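Re: [help] complex structure
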Amino acid sequence: MTRFIKKNKQHIGLPPDELIFRGQKKIDQVLLRIIDFDSTNLTEDYVKTVKEISEFQHKNTVTWINVDGLHNTSIMEEITSAFNLDTLVMAEVLNTEARPRVIEYDNCTLITIKMLQNDDNSNKTIVENLSLILTKSVLISFQERKGDVFEPVRERIRKQKKRIRNGGTDYLTFALLDIVVDNYLYVISLLGEKIETLEETLLLNPNQKIINEINNYKRELNFLRKSIKPAKEMIFSLAKLDSDYIGESTHVHYKELEDNISQANDASDDYREILSDQLNIYHTTISSKLNDIMKFLTVFSVIFIPLTFIAGIYGTNFEYVPELSYKYSYFIMWGLMIVIAVIMLLFFKNKKWF
Amino acid sequence: MTRFIKKNKQHIGLPPDELIFRGQKKIDQVLLRIIDFDSTNLTEDYVKTVKEISEFQHKNTVTWINVDGLHNTSIMEEITSAFNLDTLVMAEVLNTEARPRVIEYDNCTLITIKMLQNDDNSNKTIVENLSLILTKSVLISFQERKGDVFEPVRERIRKQKKRIRNGGTDYLTFALLDIVVDNYLYVISLLGEKIETLEETLLLNPNQKIINEINNYKRELNFLRKSIKPAKEMIFSLAKLDSDYIGESTHVHYKELEDNISQANDASDDYREILSDQLNIYHTTISSKLNDIMKFLTVFSVIFIPLTFIAGIYGTNFEYVPELSYKYSYFIMWGLMIVIAVIMLLFFKNKKWF
Amino acid sequence: MTRFIKKNKQHIGLPPDELIFRGQKKIDQVLLRIIDFDSTNLTEDYVKTVKEISEFQHKNTVTWINVDGLHNTSIMEEITSAFNLDTLVMAEVLNTEARPRVIEYDNCTLITIKMLQNDDNSNKTIVENLSLILTKSVLISFQERKGDVFEPVRERIRKQKKRIRNGGTDYLTFALLDIVVDNYLYVISLLGEKIETLEETLLLNPNQKIINEINNYKRELNFLRKSIKPAKEMIFSLAKLDSDYIGESTHVHYKELEDNISQANDASDDYREILSDQLNIYHTTISSKLNDIMKFLTVFSVIFIPLTFIAGIYGTNFEYVPELSYKYSYFIMWGLMIVIAVIMLLFFKNKKWF
Amino acid sequence: MTRFIKKNKQHIGLPPDELIFRGQKKIDQVLLRIIDFDSTNLTEDYVKTVKEISEFQHKNTVTWINVDGLHNTSIMEEITSAFNLDTLVMAEVLNTEARPRVIEYDNCTLITIKMLQNDDNSNKTIVENLSLILTKSVLISFQERKGDVFEPVRERIRKQKKRIRNGGTDYLTFALLDIVVDNYLYVISLLGEKIETLEETLLLNPNQKIINEINNYKRELNFLRKSIKPAKEMIFSLAKLDSDYIGESTHVHYKELEDNISQANDASDDYREILSDQLNIYHTTISSKLNDIMKFLTVFSVIFIPLTFIAGIYGTNFEYVPELSYKYSYFIMWGLMIVIAVIMLLFFKNKKWF
Amino acid sequence: MTRFIKKNKQHIGLPPDELIFRGQKKIDQVLLRIIDFDSTNLTEDYVKTVKEISEFQHKNTVTWINVDGLHNTSIMEEITSAFNLDTLVMAEVLNTEARPRVIEYDNCTLITIKMLQNDDNSNKTIVENLSLILTKSVLISFQERKGDVFEPVRERIRKQKKRIRNGGTDYLTFALLDIVVDNYLYVISLLGEKIETLEETLLLNPNQKIINEINNYKRELNFLRKSIKPAKEMIFSLAKLDSDYIGESTHVHYKELEDNISQANDASDDYREILSDQLNIYHTTISSKLNDIMKFLTVFSVIFIPLTFIAGIYGTNFEYVPELSYKYSYFIMWGLMIVIAVIMLLFFKNKKWF
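Output below.
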């Protein structure tokens, strides 16, 4: 299964406004949740039908509709017509494999971004496509699975935190994107911790497993970068966007988003370089160790080769080998061997081979 | 045969408006197909002569003329004069080795792009130059071979899908380019699947074949990138173009094209880096395995070298070697050898060589 | 502990104006110091309560308030309300893990930057987040620990150096940032000295320790770059900023800051490349030495292998080996061996193996 | 001789308008050729003196003066005064080592570019500096050697090809630059063919010669890139230039030039990467083969080392070695040796060493 | 001693207008030289005191004051007050470790750049900081040592070369910078010659010394790049500068400066890549040679190992070894050995190991 890009042959040539869910079904039933508030009032509810939602759009309050699960195309169609959206917009929402993007339509702004979360059980990173449809008074957020990642925002709304209760849909959008980007930072910081731990053991005990780990971290990092880099582009173009639905007053917040996503992006770049450096260091260490091994073998071989040769000489069965009959020949041989060995050792010592 | 760039010496210095087909003939006969439609009516036909086409250009409808095969220069000349085009335009269409480009002429816009398709039989990627001549009411598309890649668009026209039947030539152009870019994504995703599969077997069983595969994938990727990178440039300049023939209403679609081609481009960049990483990992793994081999050889040699030396000593034929005549000498020698071997083994154990 | 990025899971989803100190407590008690001056008068004092400070803000003088230690949230809140700041501003000040940034608020400009200092005792680099809140007549600087790094500026103020006593808060800001950037240059120059010293010993005596040192310097450099690169971005955007609180007359100074931070950044880039080059050179040297080792072993082995073989031949116990009984056989064998050895030596000499 | 940059110490500090020929003399005598034309008339001639040329400049026709050979400074001075040029312009023409550039002067535009041609005899690439002085009605082209590279353009002029006979000096300039750029493409395509051929033999039969070839191609490519990269810059700045001497109508042609030079530049970038990849692949292949060699040596040694040791044991001359006197000892030894060898083989088989 | 960046701890926190000479004293006494000229008159003199100079500034002529040596702070102060300069300007002049820069002050423009010169005696590159203070009628140039590098310009002034005698201080500035940049080109071309010579011997005779040379050239190149890269930035920003002291008429000259510094910069980039390629090629060559060495050792060992083993077998002293007593055993053994050796040789031949 390809991870980096997935393109289904069946989807080539489809009209851009065809409502086809192109992802994997990650939740059984579509969940519709609504939070409607202004600075004084608050309504929060799970709803069953789109009709119940649509009446909120003409109120003067801020309405946040959260849709968990995208696979039920008929519900999507209902939302499309209830809020008078272009089918193009909803088709984009369903296209979960697309690149993070901001598109301004006639009566709304669409923002899509990948959400990265660390699953505390499996310790794996989960990716999910988040789409936000932003109008003057309504924010519709679409998630692929039932998620409680935005719970802190709901909490802040409930607790009547001033800024969020007085802000419009643009501030709410910022609050959601802020959580997404904070999760980027969190996920990278977890990976980074592993990478920096590896660095410390790299030089102490280099072994084959380290290559596996470096490789795994590279893959994971590539995977994160694939989401973070276009998200950065998206957020920068969002901050520059002259949208009707994003007010002046939230600009300072979008500036902060820019800084945070830049930090995430920088960190992913840095870790990428660190991993490359680690592989290099490892390779050089390995080569250095090979030298030590070969020096060891060479010293050992070179000392014994002439000694064994000498023993071989006096193991020959020639009838006339004068040395064999002298009484002290054997001891002289030993003496000679020791002298040769010592000279060799001094030679290698001099060459700084050990 | 060079793949990356092909320049025929004979073509140097030709006037830019000389109608010479510079590619390879990939189809026997030029095919002319016409689809003429507005929101209510639809005419679809294969035609034999250019005359039959030319009458459509003054109607108020959208006319899509599809020309398969470029080698028949006389037909090209007829089209040129029938639609009152600059010969420069047609010369560009015939120059199939050129870089993807958008050029605005006085009475038309020319768009050229490379089409990449996966041939399902041979599993190879086929490249073809696609040229689009865009005027207010006529779109002429030129393909090098008979292709059914645009069939989904024809289908949408036939099925009276609103957007395409109400759109102009600019929307039609978008629809065709969209298919081209979707095919980029598809072709890359196929290659990417192979690359990511390779990654999994890289560390388990590194062998010479992997270098071949990495090399092949690199070549294939270079080949794709050669088409995708300038296509990206072209599409971005197209989106910025202030053309008479591309209306405001299609801007949102061209934005999507930009995103898709960026995704294709990013993916090709990512896979490129992954392949480089794989080669690095492979090289480091190989070096690491060499260390293991040499450690093995060294341990084995270093243990046996002194033992064989001792045996050699007592194989000498000196007349007076005192040890030879002691009754237990042979067993003492064995004992000594075992002690040496054990010391050696402990030494290597201590060095963590195994 | 991760160094490059640190993100606490508890902080995800907090409102941007929540006053939470996100760093480590590095000082016991918050220190408030005040310097108030114009060209003629000077007041300098340590104060205990925020009230004592707040009265200075309406005077016509320049007031510099230095806050050492950020952990006491209630003092921060007092400052916030005393100077009528947005809580967002103070939340940024407390967020010491954030990226260096300039943000313009309604009634102030916030500048944050990492301070790098060389601790002369441990010879390690200390990082600290510096935040500056700049209004027309007040500059509030926040440091994480009690620091005397700005003492030279205080000295200049006391000594009635004209420029600083006549300048506004913008000039004072420049003076502080100038010290921060000068410390960057100083810290890099210290590291650079070590790196360039390493270079000299790299080729003379390559050994495993050099990899450790290269790796350590890389880590240290990465660590510095992490602060310097975004600081450069920040200073360039600061110089371009059309702020109410930064006057025309200080532009020439901000230009100088740009040059200095660029110099620091260039130097860090250069040292990065030098370290990579060093690792490459080291790896190549190691490989080159391995060739020498293997040449040595090969020459030695290849000369003795056939000699030992010959000795082995005449050590066989066949009953009929004609050579054994000739009187001069033993000496002929020696002659033959010497001839073989000389031929081998000439062969290797010819191959330039030694 | 340096190829990449050549700077004569004597030329440092010369005034910019000093007419000194700084290149090598590549032709014996300066050749002056003139082609004067409008849509109906054509004069073509070799002339001896500058006087004969100067009268053409006030006619309403397009006059193309081709100067082959730059070493005769007095002729250059005559041209300078005949056409009332700034001496700066002519000094630039004579400075053949300079970077390709476009400079607008008061009464002319100067364009310089390197011409790359493949010499079909030696199969080497020849470089030559081409300078074009462009005024309203006169184009003076300066070449270092007698060249027939522009013959196709002359042919087109003679054959009364409409576009070129109706165009002005700007169209003529385009036609010449087009040939230069086409030659870039041709030269690169020739080199590219060699590089892609190399790729095919790289994995089949890696040997030392391949390094030489890769190195040679790298050098050649560097050499080409040195001309192509600044030429690209030059052509892009030319296309953006708001010159009096380049009319609106030729903009579409300059756009094509941009595309072609970009294609040349892309191809040179691509080949550069391919060569780097090839060297990497080669290095990895070599390392992989080394593993095979060492495995082979290790397997062979490790099998025979204990066998030879055993034989050595029973070659000792101890008086009391019980095994020696048993009748079947010799055969038992053989059996033992075979068992050891088989166990070893199975061990290596299990380790997948062969 | 660090070369890339030097920061004295004592200088941190100094006011920007403190006149402290931060470099090394490179000349004993400060030399003041004056050249005052217009198109007709010329005064040239060495002066002792600043007073003698200051009277020139109100004349209508162009005055070029050359100051060799910066260590005498009191002279610097005199110049500052004589020409009514901001002390900031002079502080910049004395800060010889700073980055090349252009700064516009109220009544002057300051230009600083590093001068690189090849010392013909030691064949080393000398660096020196050049500062130019440019006003309407006065140009003050500051050098660190007594230099005659600008002698050609003085010569041109003396010889009444029109352009320089009629030009203003801006043209004079160009003339000086032109010499500086020409020296860059010269210094690089000298280094380049060495690098390209190295390339030719790289493949013929690779040895350890080559690593040293590559490393030395890398260091030298890094050193040059450190001056050239910021100089390029400086010159480009100078050309874009809307200064009161740089007239329209010199723009064409500054364009040329841009081209020349770009050429120097490109060349340094190119050589950098060539050196990296050389190291790569060298490393690969070394690895390739190691394969040859190991093949040689393996072939030799593998042929003799079984032969020596066989000889060992028949050197055993078993009482009953049937082969020993056959008369032709010895010759059969030789035959067997030869057969084994030939088979081995054919095997390796087949494997293309030699």
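Chain E has a mean pLDDT of 89.
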